[in-house]
Amino acid sequence: MSDDKQNLPLTDAQIEAIAERAAEVALNKVYADVGKNVLKRMAWLTGVAVIGLALWLAGNGSLPKG
C-alpha cells in the first residue's frame, strides 16, 4: 500500500460514524454478557429449587421408594 492511502484524513462525519458503530458493537457485547450471566444464574437457582423440592418431598415421604 502506498503512503497516500494510509494518511488520508477522516472527516468529522466519518469519525462520528465509526464511533457510533464501535459503541453499538460494544453495547451488543455487554448485552450478550449480561444475558449469559442472567441465564446462568436462573439455571443455578432452578437447580437449587429442584433439589430443595426433592429433599423436602423425600423428607415428607411423598417420593416413592424405588
Q: Can you walk through the features of this model?
A:
The protein has 66 residues and is an all-alpha fold. The chain is built from 2 helices and no strands.
**What is the helix fraction of residues, given as a range?**
over 70%
Q: What is the gyration radius calculated from CA atoms?
A: 27 Å
> Largest beta sheet, briefly?
none
Please work out how many helical segments DSSP would assign: 2
SSE string:
HH
Basic shape: rod-shaped
Q: Structural class of the secondary structure composition?
A: mainly alpha
pLDDT < 50 runs, ≥5 residues: none
Oligomer category: single chain
Strand content: under 5%
Mean pLDDT over the residues: 91
The end-to-end span amounts to 75 Å
Secondary structure tally: strands? 0
Brief description of this entry?
With 66 residues, this protein is mostly helical.
